[in-house]
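Schema walkthrough. Field components (list of strings):
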Amino acid sequence: MNNIIELSRNGIIEALKTSVQKAIDSKMLPMIELPVFTVEIPREKEHGDFATNIAMVLSKSAKKPPRDVAKTIVSNFEIKDIPIENIEIAGPGFINFYLKWDWLHPVIEDIIEQGNDYGRVNIGKGKKVQVEFVSANPTGLLHMGNARGAALGDSIASILQFAGFDVEREYYINDAGNQIENFAKSLEVRYLQHFGENVSMPEDGYHGEDIIQTVNNFIAECGDKYLKVDSIERRKILVEFALKEKIANIEKSLLDFGVKYDNWFSERHLHEKGIVDATIEELKKRGYTYEKEGAVWFKAREFGDDKDEVLIRANGSPTYFAADIAYHKNKFERGFEHVIDIWGADHHGHVKRMKGAMRALGYSPDSLEVILMQLVRLVRGGEIVRMSKRTGNVVTLSEILEEVGRDAARYFFVMRSADTHLEFDIDLAKSQSNDNPVFYIQYAHARICSILSQAADEGKYKNLDKPNLALLKEQAEIDLIKKLAVFPMEVSLAAEMRAPHRIAKYAHELAGLFHSFYNAYRVIVPDVELSFARLALVRAVKTVIFNALKLVGVSAPERM
RNA sequence: GUCCCAGUAGCUCAGCUGGAUAGAGCAACGGACUUCUAAUCCGUAGGUCGGGGGUUCGAAUCCCUCCUGGGACACCA
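Field assembly_structure (string):
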């Protein structure tokens, strides 16, 4: 990475180590191991461009007060290739470094040069990672929880890609097992009801309106010709038709949401190819199963769970858990070095035994990472929108897209960290005002585009070669440049922490700094040199806003 | 009962792999458009970081305990 901040930071770290060594050599410090210390950009800019806690962490073993240690280190400190202007000892023993005021200015040219690649880092080193998300049952519509999962998963995948991982997005289709049987029964009931037969929906059937529509579509195609055939045959045909339609609908909703998968993986495939059976055999062979009451159990307790889990029911059919183990084993067999699952928090009980099963099969449980996300609360008119699956009263992804638009929806679903409940305020997401963070950010981008096109119209910058960035000396400009420079670090952090909300927040802050600058100074001014420098600055801001928004799946319009 | 998540400004939330005076947006209050987009900006006010103990140079952050809210504990998925 040739990022200015990283280079400078590493330079200071090395120089600090050398300084401590020199102090030890000249007996100013006792022989000691250098503990872990940090060199960070302080939150307060009054604390310099970099600050280190090295004196404080050395204090104990050096048997000297932190500020004395700091003095010793500073007196031995030497650095040549980084423009440090001042070093001071502050607070309880921090050493603060102040760099030349325009040390970050070159980042503007880096950004313009790298364009949409600016911010790309390589902490992933090409590691093969799979992100699996949404994977909702293909028996219904996508709801708010699925929507949050989609936004989070897609954004995490994008960020990991940008951070140098080799990422694949996957959707697991639960097209087998109990709930499909159940689905088939419900479809059959609706089918028969349509032709006037007096059958009623089972208590645990699918009561949603959407499957009536699906059955109507089926009837439009096939009419009543399955009225008289054997029930098993009828259900089979119905469920084939319905699954195809449902999955196509889900795929379309997700595409409308800006989410595109690399792979759709069928659970049925696992059963048909004997992968589930083979996996259970393998667990048996390894001694992690036993039989009890006619069922085959997995010894989850050996892996820290509080109870064991059934793999094959007494009736001979494998459980969802068994299929899921086979599925995850298959992921590793496909060559993924790291696997990320995004699940609703209501599945958290599943995590421990899934990891246990992976360990039982000889995989590292750390290679399977489960991100749990908390629930979504919809708020409209200051009231929580009550939803219930039983009555079919749910707000779907398509409906929310229709109502608030894709950009607002994408942004709102990732603006909070996954492990906090998300309050989704529909009125706010819809409002085209300054309260709405999405518009705030997009507006900054549009404003810049407007300035750039105006400058282009004037045409007097054509024969200028390189901007003189030293002309950018206002505090608002320096703050803006610093924010731009920090973007690659922000990407690294967001990737490591699987935290898209950090990028969302970053974009908002960057837009804020731009708006402040915009209101305080004009970009296009009579001084052509200064205009040219400011145009370079705002062009860089535009690029970074675009790149950041891209990572969270939000567009950056040129005009609004 | 066991486990997971949360509790930070009036509201919604950052900060949590320990750092300096705890932040942002909204709401409230007071200002700024003869200007490249006012969908903007500037300023003011707002806090026992759920309570209590501990660890240490230093705790919103780590440990213990208690309280509150949400969720999970099926031969469902």
